[in-house]
Each structure stands twice: as C-alpha cells, then as structure tokens.
Amino acid sequence: MENPAFLGLGGSPGCCCVPSTCPPVTGALSEVTMVGLYMFLLGLVLPQFLMAFAWRSSVSIRGILLPMRRMRALIALCPCVRSQSRPARSEDGGRVTGTVPAAVTTFVAVGTSLLKRLQDHEGDRVETYRELESVLWGDDGCLTSGVVNRLIAEALSDMRAAQGVTGDVKMAASDVLVALARSHFHFVMSELQSQLKAMRKVPDEIVLLTLGKMARRYALRCIPFAGMTLLALRAVLTQVGSGEVLHAVCSVLEQWSKGVNTYFCSWEQCPFPRKGVAQFCEAIYPVFRYVVANWLDCKEEEDKQAVLGAVAAMLGVLLHEEQHREHTWEQLLWLLQQYQEVRDTSRVTKSLSYVLDILEGVQTPIPQGTALAISTAVHRQLSDVTEETGLAQKAVLSRCIVLQARMRPEETGVFLRSQLSGGSEAGRVAALGLLGVLAHSDAPAAREKLPQVVEATRSLCSDPSAQVRRAVLEFSRELLSSGSQSCWPWDVVGHIFSEFSRTSGRLVAGGLFAWENPEDGAIRALCMDILGSLDVTLRGMTKLLWPRLLQYVVPAQYSGMLIPLSRCLRALVERRERAGCEEEEEEEEPGAVDSREQARLPAPQALLARLLVSSGALGKELFWPGVVGDPAVEMLVVAAAPYPSRERAVAALQLLQALRGRIHRGLGVAWATEIPLLLQYLEGRTESSLASAEWERRVLKFLRASLEPVEDKAWTVGLSQELSQRLGSSAAGSWEKLFLYKALGTVLAACQDLRHVQGQVLRFLQETNPVELSEAKGMISVVSHAAESHFYLLLGTLTMFSAAFTRGWALPGFHGLEERELKLRGGNNSQPQHSQLEEWLGELLGGARGNKELARVERQQRMGRTQTIRAALMRTYSGMALHAPKEQLLACVDKEIMGNILRLSRDKQRDLQLKLALVQSVTEVSCAIQAVGDCGSFELSLKQEATRTLLDWIKREPWDSLVYGVFQALEELSKLRPPLSRKENRNLLAVCCQSVLSHPSKERMKKGRKSVRAAVNMELLHRRGMEDLGHLIETLLEAEATSACFDDVVHVLKGWLTSAKAWERERALRVCTHVLGACKERCELVRGCPCKQLGSLVGLLGSLTGDCLATCRQRAWVCLGYLLQMHAKSMKVPQAGEIRCLCEELNSPDTETLVKTRTKITKAVCRCIPAAQAVDFLTAVLDSLLHVMPPRARVVWKWVFIFLVECRKEIVQEVRRFEGTAGPQGYGLRGERLFPCSDTVELWRSLGRSILGIRILRCLVEKLNRAGNHRLGTDSSTCKRHNRQTAVETLTITRAISEVVLALRSTEELRQLLPHLLPSLLRWASEMLGGERLLLLMSTWRELFLECHMHVEKPCRIFLSALELVLGKCMAQKWTQLLVNRGVWARLEDPLAHPGGVRLLSSVLLHAGLVSPCLVKNLLPWLDSCSVKLRVTATAFFAEISRGGQDGQGPPSFTYHTAFA
Length: 1461
Description:
67% of the residues lie in helices and 0% in strands. It is mostly helical. The longest helix is centred in the middle third of the chain and has 28 residues, at 856-883.
C-alpha cells in the first residue's frame, strides 16, 4: 500500500497522519490494516456523520468535538506501540504531555521551549512563530500529542482573537499550522474543519486562508476532506459579502478546486480509494452556480480578481464532466470579457492558460466561435500598446496560443495569417511573435502549417516599420533554431544580412556627422545576436549555410557581422572536417536546396585581404560603405577594423586560420605558427592596453611572412591589383584606406615582378592628388613599404620623378641605382620599361608647364600645388629612409635622400606645409640613420646645412606661427656626426631660446587670437615647444664631450632668468627645471659641470626664490633641490638619502613645513658652495640686484646673510680677492629702492660685522649721494610725489647706514670713508629742514625702521642721528661730549639755528682733525648749488674753517689754507 510517489507531496509514508519517524506497529494489528481502517472511517464514515450533525441545530459544538478528540487520541497512541519512552514533564503542570521518542529529544525540547515562550507571552510573538515554523520545516522529528494539542490551541487562539493581536501574528500562526501539518496533518485539518463549521457562521478570514494554504501545500492529502470543506463553504456562502472574507473564501475555492484537478491528473499517486469525477463535480457545481449568479458582477478590483481565480479553478473541475461543459463555454467567454473589465489582466491570462491546459488534458474540442474569441483576445492583449505587458505575461499569452493551436491548428493559423496581411503595426508585430512561438513549438499539426506561415511572413520583409522588421527577424531566429526545413525556400540568412546592411547603409550615407537612429542600432544588434546564436549542429544547417555564409565575409557593409560570422564559419569548417563532406551531404534531407546554387563565392585573394584588414585594426570602429568592388580587397578591409576591435581581430585571425586551405595551399605552414602568436599577443589585453601602431606593425609583418612562401607571381600580382582597386572605392581619409595603402606596399615588397612594382609606384606618384593629405599619406605608405625590398629601384624612380618635376635637375645616379637593384635580384628579367617611364614623365612635364597666360589666381593656385607636391616628395624620401634596409641606407642617405630633401625645400615662398614637411623629413631621416646602429665612421655631411636651414626659418618665424616639431628635428640632428662647433651650439641655443621664451604673455596671446580655441591651441603649441627645447638641451649635453656646452646653456639661460618680464622668467625656469632634472637623473650628461658652476647657479636661482610669481618661486626651489642632489651624488655625500627626502618635502601642502624645508635647503646649498666659488656666488647674487624689483631684494639679501653666516670662516681669502676686483657698482645697490624691515635689520648688522662691512657701507653712501640727483621742483603734483618718494628712499638708506655703522668693527676704515659719508648725511639733514608736513603724508613708517619710542616729528633727525653715530665712531669721546654740551644737534634741527650748528660742528671737526682735503672738495660744490639750504650750510662750514676754529679750545690742527692746498 505504501506509494513512494506520495512522499513528494509533503505527506508521510503510508499514512498522511502518521509521522515518518515513528517505528512501525507490530502484533495482531498491522500498520497497513490500521491505516486502512482509520482512513476508511475518517474519509467515509466520519465526514458524513459530522456533517449530518452540523445541519442540526439541536446538537451542540461539544457533541461534535467529543468524537473528534477521542479519535485523535486513538490515532496518537497507535504509532507509540513498543516505543522506548520516558515520562515527559509537564511544562505548565496542566495537561498530560504523552511520551517523547528518545531519538528526537532535541527537536522536542526546542519545540517545547518555543511553545512555552508563546504561552508565557515572552518576546516577539511573530519572531517566535517564525522560529517555530523553521524548526517544523527543517526537522523530521515528531512532537508528542500533548505538545501538538497545546501548539494548535495557542495558534488558533491567536488566529481567532478579535482584538490585541496584529495581522502579522495571525499570519505567522497560520504558517506554523501549515508547517505542523507536515507531520501531524490530521490534527491540524481536524481543528480547521471544526473552525469552518463552528456555529454555522462564516469563520475567521485567517482560518479560510489557512485552509487554502493546506490545499495548495498538501493537495492529495486534502482529498478526503474535499467534500466536507465544500459542503461547509456552501452552507455559509449566503453570509459572505465583499472584502477580505470574500477574498478568503475565493482563495479556498480556488486552491481546493486546483487540488481536485491535481487529483484527476495523478490519482494513482494518492493512497486513498479513488473517487469518481461525478462526485467532485456534484460537490462543486452548486457552489459554482452560486458564485456565477451572485459574485460575477462585483465592483471592486480586488473582488473581481479573487472571483476570477475561483471561477477559473472550478471551471477546470467541471470541464471533466460532459454535462457541465455547455455552461463552462459561457463562463469561458465571461473570462475573456474580463480583459476589458479588470485593470490587472495578468490574473485573467493565468486563468485562461489554466483552463486551456485542462481542455488539452480532457481532449475536448473548443467550439469554433470560442476558439476565435480566445485568439482575438490574446492577440489584442499582445498588440495593445497602451498597456506595457511584462515578459512573464507575454510568455503565458503565447502559451495560450500554443495550447489552442494544438487543439485548433487550422483556425489558429488562418487567424494569425489574417493579422499579418492587415491590421495595425502592433498587431503585425504580435502576430509575428506568436508565429515564432508556434514555429518553435512541438505541436505537429502547427508545424505542418509553417510553409504557409513562412510564405506569408516574406511579404513583411519590406515593411517600413522598424518594429515589424524587428519582429520578422525574431521570427527568423525561431525558424532557424527550430531546425525545420521550412525556411529553405526563403533565404532567411540572406534576409538577416540584408537588414544589417540596410540599417548600416543609412548611417554611412549620412556621413561622419550622421545621427544614428536607435531603432537601426537595435536591429543591427539583433542581426548579430541571431547569427551568433545559430546552432550549426542542427539537421540540415550545414547544407543550408555552407558555403553560402562565405559570400557575406567580403562585402564591406557586413563588416560588423564578422564576429558571429567567423564563429559560424569556423564551426561549419570544423564540422565538415570532422564528419567529411560526402558523409555530411548524405545525411541531409533529400529535398534540401544546396546553398552553392545561390552563393556568389569570393576569390581567395578577397578573403585574405578582407580578413587581414579586419585583424589589423585595433581601437577603430568603422561603418563600411556598400561599395561594389572586388571581394578580395573588401575582405582585407574588414580584417583591420574589428568591432569591437579586439574581438573582431581575434575573429578575423581565427577565420583566416580555418580557411587557410581555401585561400592558398602554401599558407598552411606559415599560418600554423604565425596566427597563434598573434592570438597570444591579444590574449589577456584590453583595448586600452593595446597599442594600435604596434599591432598594425605585427599584422603587416604577418602579411609579409605569409607571402614569402608563395612562389606564384601571378597570385601576388593579383592580390596587389585587388588592393589597388579597393583603394579607389574606399572612403577618403578612412582608416581602412590608410591601412590598405600600407598593405599594398607590403604586397609590392613581396612581389618579384619589378616591372609591375615600378609601374604601380609610378602610377601612385603621378595620379595621387597631393592636396588631399590622406592621399599623399597613402602614396608615401605605398612607396615606403615597397622600398623594404626594392630600395634602389624605387629610390631611383623617385629621384627621376623629382628631377622631372623640378625640370632643372640632373638625374644623379638613377641608372646606377637601377643596376644595383637588378644585381640584388640576380638579373631578373622583369625589368622596368624606360619608355613607359619616360612617357609618363613627359606627360607630367607637359602638365606642369601649363599655359603662360594663366591668370594670377591660377598661378597662385599652381604655386600652392607645387609646394604641396614638394612637401609630399620630401616626406616620401624620409619614409623610404625609415623602411630602407639598414645595409643599403648609409650609402644613399647623404646625397640621394637628404640632399634631395634640402633641394626640394629651397623655394622662394615657403608655406607652412613645406616647412612642416622639412621638419618631418629631417627628423625621420635622422631617426633612420640612428636606427642603423653602429654606423662606423659615417658622418652626415649635410648636417650643418640642414641645421642652418632650420635655424634660419626659426629666426624669420613670428611668435604666433612657430613650426611644431622643429626642436625635435634639431634634437635628432644633434645626435649625428659630425658634432657642431661651440659657436654653432651657442647660436643654436640662443635662437631656440629666443623663439620660445620671448613669446608674449597669455593675456596678449588671447587678445591677438580671433577665438578662444585659437588662443588655447597657440598656448598648447608653445608649451610643447618649451618641452622640446628642454629635450634639445638635454641631447646637446649628451652629445658634447666637454663641459663647454653646459657653460653655454647657463650663459644663454641667465639672460632670460634675469628678465624684467615675469612670464619670460617663468618659461626660462621651466626649461631650467627640465634640464637640471635630467642632469640629476643622468649625471653623465654634465660630466661634473654643475659642481663647477654651482656658485653662480645658486646665486642666480636664489634671487628667484622671491619672485612675484608663485610658479617661478616653486620652480626655483625645485632647481635648487636638483643642484643639491647633483652635488651630493658627485661628491658622494653620505647624507644623500636625507637630502633627497628633504627635497621631496618641497611638495608638502603644509605652509609651516614648507618654510622650514626651504630654510634647510638654503643653508645646505650655501654649505655646498666650494670656497673657490664664493666670489662667483656673491657676484651672481649681488648682480641680480641690478634686475630685481624691491620685494625680491629682501630675499637676495637674505641669501647673502645666510651664506656669510654659514661660510664665514671658509671664504675669507676668496672675499679679499672679491674686494679687490669688485667695484662700488658690483653690489647692485644703484638706483633701486630698498625696503628694510624688522627681518633685514639683522641682515644689515651682519653685513656690518662681516669682512664686507666697509664695502657695503661705501655702496650705501654712493646710493645716498645719487638719490637726489634727479630731484624735481615742487610745482606740480607729480613733482611733489617724486620728491616724497626720494625722501622715503633717503631715509631708508640712512637707516641702513646706521645699522651697518653700528655693527662695524673697523674704525680706521670708517674714518677714511668719512669725507664721503659726512657730506651725504649733512646734505640730507639740511634738505629735510622744515619737512615735517611732508613726512606726515607718508604711510611707510615701518619701512623706515622707526620704532614707537622714536620721535619722528622732524625727518632731519634721522640723518643727524646717523651722523652722530658715525662721528661717535670716528672721534674721541671728548669731542663727542663737546658736541652734546654745545647743543650742536639741537641747533642743527632748528632751521633758524642751523647755520650756527654747522659752524659749531665744523669747529669740532677741525679740532678733532677730521677735516680733510677730500671733505672740503666734496663740500665746495654746495656753494654753487641751486638749493638755498645747501648754500647756507656750505657758507657756514667754510666760514668756520676760514676762521681756523678760534673758539678758545686751543690751536686747531688744520687751517683754511691747508684745506685748499
């Protein structure tokens, strides 16, 4: 009796109520007998007994439950016979808990614990129920009857609670009961049935939902209760209104009806006695009639959906009984009508599919009208554009049509074909989709109608609607994947390629800026997807596709399909090779159409060319115009532009390998090794990491290696002709055309027919339009690549062509070059025809002469064309040099190549194109010579001429038309021998720096440009020019064998680093940073030069650390860091690592750290300056004061101060030499304002204490004397402002003098300077008398070092204080005290007493012996001064001198007469 199939339905073996883990019952009453008896009583006797009492009102609920409980107790005891049990403790002290099997103690403990939490109301009840549910589903253990009873009671209590229990708790309790039914089905179902019939009223909603879950989960186990449940529901239908209760009742009806249908389909799996269909229909039909009569017209959407599901499920039961089918057809039409009534039609669709499934099972034919209604409704749903139908619902609708087609194939096919010929666009799309589903279905009757369907579908191929064409493609996919030969009469594959070409053609026709329609892009993607998903292993596919697919490889419009096309063709080739062609053909259908009858197969050269170009393009996505040409060349174009490029390259190479036998039999061996290497190179690389130029080189190398073993000249010539023809049909400027030029040159290089090679090259030279840059570039590619094997022949041909073009040249060496080529070829008889060559050149000359009466415009056009041809020929020469064999290049590069390039560049009017051509040609020829490697004693004799030509152009070029790349050409030239002289190198550096660094500022550039874009381009061009200039200097340093070049670099850059224009300093610093950075990394460049120039470089760069531009300051510090690291490397300083880390801190964003780092670098750099270079440093840093603005002077003096502090002991001897050679002008203190501040006070004092103190003081005195030489009058406001600035300057200098004198250690030297210092201070003290108002207008008190405690009402006091300090250093203390006692300083401040003060001062000076002839000489010009104050001062001074100082202080040591002696 035990049925294993029953185990998968959630029940237990043998009995639906006995736990599977309990041991079998032994003894007189066997398990089978007991189960049968129980099921008989429970399923047949007890339901009728209970239902009879349910209809009687006199019977109480206790009378109904009592027999149920007794039966439940009896059944619970049965499985426990002979089980080892132990008493279970009562958790609540109430109910008897029964026994617990020892094997499931843990399971029982967990379940009991969770139940106790529910009973004690601990924790979250929802969470507890969920845990309990998980335990019940996850374990096969068995709970005791007591625990089961309490659990059911607790769950039902929560489910029936009217208040205080949330819906989540009720739903969780319901789920626990469903899980508990897995092992105690009878216990749960009995309680639910009792709740269903309690007090003859509508039970709780949650109870009904639980019943529905039970039927859905345990369909077959619920069959004994089906009649009881339906009878109970029938009794309460009249009490059901709308809302949630209605939904719950409909859910019970739906799930139990579906359970009955499940029983009909698999009744043999059910262990219960079989019931007839009539019994179930008799129970369901009354309920069905009530629902149809009362609930079909409900208004709410949710009510409609619930009733719809219930009606459909009951229809499925009633369809099994013939007497009810007539009524079911009516309700089926009502079901279709619901598409118009409900908002969410997915429930209608699922119900319809359910009913159709039942109809197919009962094999009942659908009435014709009903079938048409179903087809119409389904088609309308699929074609309704107002509602968005999901993929899942579309699948269900399509299944409905498939089900109907199985029952009504003829009517379904007629209906769908009618929708193809008429109706809306959406209707045609929907019909095509349904036909595709039918084509792929397994219905024999539907597949028999496919030929008619295919014929009808062909009429839609030209439909203007993109959606319809897309649907046709989808139908083609289904047709091909079905493996049916119905598609053979219609070229489905051809239609796919036609659609791809159609959508691509519109984009190409629109040009470069064509806007792509998204629908066209989607169609192309669909075509590729269909082709990529073809299953060639299906029966008949090989016959259908091979070799028809080959004709779609070559045409350019199908290049985007190469990836899936390659996959299909490789699979076909592999299949044919594995099975054999003859055997494969025998397996095909006898009526199959051989595709060879329709295919136009490409030539072998076409396949090679197309696939080669496809494999050669990396990072190029192209759309190919539909050009009718030779298929061989079109195949070459595809191979170079994969889409996506990497995947397409792989596909093209793999297809080449598969078709190697079809292309040429001599390619197999070479491709067996070469193609795997190319594929290995692509493997693991992304498109961003692949260099397109390198990949292109590899593909061309592969082409050359492929052609070497081919001995058939005609085949190679044919390949070159195919490439030439394809060039004429390719789009101008497109990538594929440029690659075709290179491929053609490579094929010509492999061709052994010299006549053909020369003819092809000369034809390109003659027919190419050089005005079109792409054509000129292509011509250069052809000649250059062909020269790899025919260098002498093509060089001679190019030389003859150039000579004929310029008309005035001889033909140097042409015949000799030709003889060399023939000698290399071993006397090949395929010689070029001179007569044909001369004829072509004659035609060219005739066209070049033209008519002498051309208009001026035409002459200008011809002149422009002439220069364009010259430029193209120059580039051709340099291209040949790059591709020439190394062993043949050096013999011809000087005269035949570089000489011809320079001759072609000589034109009276050189345009930009000709200049660019010269620059490019010189660069490429220089690189070609360097690529030879060991050139021995080779020297390029035209190097100096080429350099002079480039420099002359640079000199004449305006700042806004600098030729890009000219510095690169000079750089490459400088690497060749012979080296330039030092004079030539310095001239080269000067010209290049002048052309780059003298550009106007960015603001002026922007003003001079017509557009912002032009200004940006110009700025970018100049920035690249500075970078190239840095590389050029680096190359010159590397090429020069001595240190003279570095001296020249410093000499040239020094003038720009000290420029008054900030932008010029910034550019020079950028170049300097590049050069020093390169020298730091490569110490061999300078050969120790930076150490010899360290002092002057530090002095020059140190002054720039205070530049007004932040970029200049930053770069100056970077340069100093480079110098410091270079010195550390050259001297092998142990602290080199610390110095490197210190320089890296210059990039710190922290301001405080940056300041500390710069100070450390300054000290370190100063310490690195050798003592022998101290004079160089001081000279450079002090000379910079001649060029700096006042703010930078402070930084300059700070560098001097730090240097003197750090190196004062080491530089004593050098500074003495500096004192003897440096004059007063050498300190850079002339003419510029100094702005002392609190930071520079210590600087002046340090200078006074140093050995340079007296020299500094002398310069300050001279500066003070010059300060007023250009003083203006006082009439205008300008003059007043000038005089005010002069006053501020003199006061600043005077304060600096005071600080130096205060720190000066040598009194004797100060006494010697007194004749110059005293007149300067006394002069300005006299000039400033009465100048209080002038100083009140000033706002630069801090600049004068005037502290708060000083009195500043009288400006002359500053000068008198300085004079007092100077005299205090030069005189004895008694004379100083005498000046104070007589009130000399107070008298000198008073304008009225000033002459008397001068007389007293003169008297003291005379007695102190400080009046010298030099002092008198300096004061004499005051007597004739235009300043009244100076004349009065001079008169008072000389009056006292003439008296001899007779003031009672003793005989003077100096008389008036001796003063003028």
